Amino acid sequence: MDYKYQLILLGSEVEAKPKILSILFQKINDLGLPENILKIIEADKINSDYLGNQPAFGLYFGDVEGKHKHIDITDMLLKDGTMILPVYFGNPDGAFSKEIPNNLTNQNGIRFSENELDRIANIILESFELLRSTRKIFISYKRNESTSVAIQLYEALESYNYDVFLDTHTIGKAEPFQDELWHRMTDCDVIVLLNTPKFLESHWCKEEFAEAGTKKIGLVQLVWPHHDIKKIDSGSHLSYPLILKESDFVASIYDDKDKSKLVDIMVKEIIQKVESVRARNLASRQDNLITEFRNIAVECGRTVNVQPEKFLTENLPSGKRIIYIPTIGIPQSTSCQSAEIRHEIEINKDTSVRLIYDDLRIRDKWIKHLDWLNDNFKKDILTLKKQEFKSWLQTTK
């Protein structure tokens, strides 16, 4: 690959650096992307290795003694429009302003800890548009068993900039409840499922669990104390259980729907697990959509090629080229704005883009909206829903 995502490492030499790179490459593997998609540039190689016309993101590692390095490089990157994430290490009070140079003090930073590794790696991937920046979580629970914990997790995940769906807090007045629930589940990254003893006795909880399996959505299961996980584990596509103990609840109260609360350390562990599952879940759902589209294309006599960056291309006899981008959840315009896609369009001007997506359970009003956009706006960037894959491939040349 001659087109790379540049990660620039600035500031102090710290033990955190190899740990972040290790988890970052692990996530790149989880996404099914080639490792050489990422180019690591140390500060002393910036003049020889950095290319201003290719996507870049910077990490600035703070110095606990306040000895700031690479100020000139940081200024240059900021002028180029490069995002830089400050990472600091000392106690929260005053550590950021001491460890991070003045030209970065208006940036939001992260205080490093082992628990933040997944979050830092995901921020890097989001900045490169390799992982979508909308961070959508769906909480599935039984109201008469775990309402207080569901609300606690809703508030905790929102504080970490997740867009959280919780039925009692999220669905607006006069909205069709069940349609909106399925719609939001389809568009989520991960489901946090509160696996309480009578969860499956609820018709709708059982439906939500089955829907997660059908849509291949990853589950972070919180299994209540003294509950048998085998009762719910069989139908899940990607399931990551956390077996809770009585001591994981404040005052060991785990069976009161209004009073039960998780201890802070467990809440942080759950958020960390959600962060770690996002990339794997996205990759799995993309792979499923790619496989289905490619199989239909072969059946229709079309030749589509899967690129290492997980989009598909087709060269037509007319000389035109089509890029198919697998889109998870509801298609957004940002899905076709990744650097690699822009590069593909730049080198072949006679290129059109199709955002392919699974329309199952997406609300009719959104489907109609996307169809309207197809009919009325730019014809070289269109959406293509799963139920029309075959008819479109059979008739379009």
UniProtKB/TrEMBL annotation:
This is TIR domain-containing protein. It comes from the Bacteria. It holds the Pfam family TIR_2. GO terms for biological process: signal transduction. Residues 133-274 form the TIR domain.
